[in-house]
């Protein structure tokens, strides 16, 4: 009897659960149907807009657009590039079919609307030299070198012109290895004027020895694998956005894809002085000095990790008063830490003869501060 009651109870429970489930489902269906029927869609209740790709998304359209932008930027910059010759042209253009050796062909960059042109000293010649400039529109000018620096291999030439298109100068302090760059120059002759080559920044703060027979060095250079040919000297090394980060200067002849450019930041104070004052008074401490990357070429027993090594005191110069000694390490100038020669040059270029600077130096195990009144170079 007990088993039969449990069996009847079990059937009753299952029937009840089934009916309860049907009721719940019916309720849910009715709610959804009622809600759907009363939904009101008003155009003013919502806003539509196209989804835009972010800058970092690499779609086919973006890649094509970026490529066009780089090409347009480089083409637009061509009017800021000039040809430079040490010989006056007797034909239709200094970009003649003569080879570079006889013509002295090189490149320059317009850095002001009123005719200041930045290039290499070995292209234009030293201060007060005369050279000949050809613009993109084939107009020719006689230029006078108003400033040059043999250690940097940089020069500024002035031509009598107005309304020129100047190049945009970038920031060479923040460059990174592996970034894309382009070199523009005038290799060989007329047929190859304003040639563009592409590459990357291979290294930075490179030091090289220029002459095996003399102690001639260049330091703090940007190394690139963008092809730099004879005639490219003085031309710009630029970012894809067109900003100049360096001035092409030399290449390694015994290897492919090793060229060097001078960082643009070291020239900025000089350029700004000419633009604002039409002159530049170059101040000097009166020393020959090197940073840690050049010292290995000179001596095996000099070992320091930062600062500037004083190799020689110039007789009669500002430091020729026992203030500095050969072998001193200059750690900072006016509180600014020094690690490369360009750090020192950039700061001194902003000063004028007669200004006083404070140097923190290390002399053997002694650290001290000394003041020096800058002289005129």
Number of helices: 7
Q: Cα distance, first to last residue?
A: 124 Å
| Domain count | 3
Unreliable parts: 1-9, 35-65, 92-104
Question: Can you give the mean pLDDT?
Answer: 80
What is the name of the CATH superfamily of the largest domain?
A: Trypsin-like serine proteases
Radius of gyration equals 35 Å
Which percent band covers the strand fraction? 25-35%
Overall body shape: extended
Order of helices and strands: HHEHEEHEEEEEEEEEHEEHEEEHEEE
Task: Please give the CATH class of the largest domain.
Answer: Mainly Beta
The third-level CATH topology of the largest domain is Thrombin, subunit H
Which sheet architecture does the biggest sheet show? Answer: 6 strands, antiparallel, barrel
* Overall SS class: alpha+beta
What is the secondary structure topology, with strand pairs?
Blueprint: H1 2-37, H2 60-77, E1 81-85, H3 100-103, E2 106-110, E3 116-119, H4 121-124, E4 130-134, E5 140-149, E6 154-158, E7 180-185, E8 195-211, E9 216-224, E10 236-238, E11 244-251, E12 259-263, H5 268-277, E13 283-284, E14 287-291, H6 295-298, E15 308-313, E16 329-333, E17 336-337, H7 341-349, E18 356-363, E19 366-373, E20 375-376
Report on the architecture of this protein:
The protein has 377 residues and is an alpha+beta fold. It folds into three domains: 79-158, Thrombin, subunit H (Beta Barrel); 172-274, Beta Barrel (Thrombin, subunit H), CATH 2.40.10; 281-376, Pdz3 Domain, CATH 2.30.42.10. 23% of the residues lie in helices and 32% in strands. The protein has helices at residues 2-37, 60-77, 100-103, 121-124, 268-277, 295-298, 341-349; strands at residues 81-85, 106-110, 116-119, 130-134, 140-149, 154-158, 180-185, 195-211, 216-224, 236-238, 244-251, 259-263, 283-284, 287-291, 308-313, 329-333, 336-337, 356-363, 366-373, 375-376. The strands form four sheets. It has a six-stranded antiparallel β-barrel with strand order 1-2-3-6-5-4. The chain has a six-stranded antiparallel barrel with strand order 7-8-9-12-11-10. Strands 14, 15, 16, 17, 18 and 19 form a six-stranded antiparallel sheet that branches. Strand 10 (236-238) and strand 11 form a beta hairpin. Mean pLDDT is 80; it is low at 1-9, 35-65 and 92-104.
